[in-house]
User: Fold DUF2461 domain-containing protein from Luteimonas yindakuii.
Amino acid sequence: MPAYFSDQSLRFLHNLSRHNERDWFHAHRADYETHVREPFQRLLADLQPDLAAVSLQFRADPRPVGGSLFRIHRDTRYAHDKSPYKRWQGAKLFHARHREVPTPSWYIHLQPGENFLAAGIWHPETPVLRRIRQFLVDNPQGWRRAAHDPALQRRWRLSEDEMLVRVPRGYPEDFEFRDDLRRRNFVIVRALDDATMTGPRLRQTIARELAATAPFMDYLCAALDLEF
Assistant:
């Protein structure tokens, strides 16, 4: 089976990080389309049956606009860094209701030496965060199976970005998973090396990981009263 991405895909993103300028990007836009965006769109299209086998509520949408693929352009309006382009390409496998309410998602990240898969909900607003924390307190055994299964933890790790210093007020200090109550993001991450991202079995790898992380995503959906 042919690979989706290649060394040229990674080389383009590496060069973009060194020449993050509009003139350079426009001069090399054909390389971006051929080696990054179009392969990503093919991957998303091919993942549709794999994702449907895990959940009928999530979408892998290959459309160039309004689909799963994030724009390569950065929003620099409020950023100190005015570089016009991201140094990576990412795509989100989103819930059917993602435009209506906060939802978890799967994420695929292509970046030389920093590729990864992620699953969960990133930066939820405070009311959503409270719902997840309370659901965790009320359903600790389900959380154990969803997030702390040894087979899952061999390949995935819970993100520790932006952890609170202590358990939030109102939650039990002696709770079995008190460290998880300190989370600002309920996300699990798995790194992928460049050889996997450019290899012929990338789709199979992602499909396997979608299935492996389904209990985690199902748990978050249940916490937010979403169908999985």
Summary: The chain is about 45% helix and 15% strand. The chain has a mean pLDDT of 96. The longest strand covers residues 89-95.
